[in-house]
Design a protein that fits this description.
- By secondary structure, the chain is mainly alpha-helical.
- The longest helix is centred in the C-terminal third of the chain and has 33 residues, at 136-168.
- α5 (106-134) runs antiparallel to α6 (136-168).
- The protein has seven helices and no strands.
- The chain is globular.
- 23% of the residues are buried.
- The model has no long low-confidence stretch (mean pLDDT 86).
């Protein structure tokens, strides 16, 4: 979404609707990934409860409060908190089961990237609604100088997770010949 959102912003068009429409998609993808890693049935129920609560909150803000083209006041920060909770829980659980060092687990790096990004964005998202109404230039600068470095750090963590996955499942010459 970064490229189309940037294009809209450079052409002085509202791009917040793209962010708002992507919120449930991001939430579904993250919850699905973490659902795969979670073994505790009760925590899976908590995941479902949190995702349902998020969807209700998002629907309320987008449909009833008609904020499709504005920053959401509650849905985005709530999503940040849910993702932070799930990522922290994953690191905690991974640290309890140390078949291998935690830094050699892909789930650690994915969770760490999400924690870096969403902890910084939580503060920004809590203030974005007010800043957009009163000081939009400050919000634009914060998004440029805070969101971009947070995203870079998160993507470096995702790259580490990918690298570990490639090392865990290397493609051998024999496998290439079979395809």
């Amino acid at each position: 979404l970064t490229i189309p959102m940037t294009w809209f912003a450079l052409h002085h068009r509202n791009n917040v609707w793209m962010m708002n429409s992507s919120l449930p998609i991001y939430m579904a993808v993250f919850l699905w990934v973490f659902w795969q890693w979670e073994l505790d049935r009760n925590q899976r129920i908590v995941f479902l409860f949190l995702s349902t609560l998020f969807l209700l909150l998002w629907s309320f803000e987008i449909i009833i409060e008609a904020k499709f083209f504005d920053y959401t006041t509650y849905a985005r920060p709530f999503q940040d908190l849910v993702i932070l909770y799930i990522a922290c829980r994953t690191i905690y659980q991974s640290n309890k089961r140390l078949e291998s060092p935690i830094v050699s687990q892909s789930r650690f790096w994915i969770s760490a990237g999400l924690i870096v990004y969403y902890s910084g964005m939580l503060l920004l998202n809590l203030a974005s609604d007010r800043l957009m109404a009163s000081r939009p230039e400050i919000l634009k600068n914060l998004l440029l100088y805070v969101q971009a470095p947070l995203a870079l750090c998160a993507h470096l963590c995702y790259l580490a997770a990918y690298r570990l996955g490639v090392q865990a499942y290397p493609i051998t010459r024999e496998a290439e010949l079979l395809t």
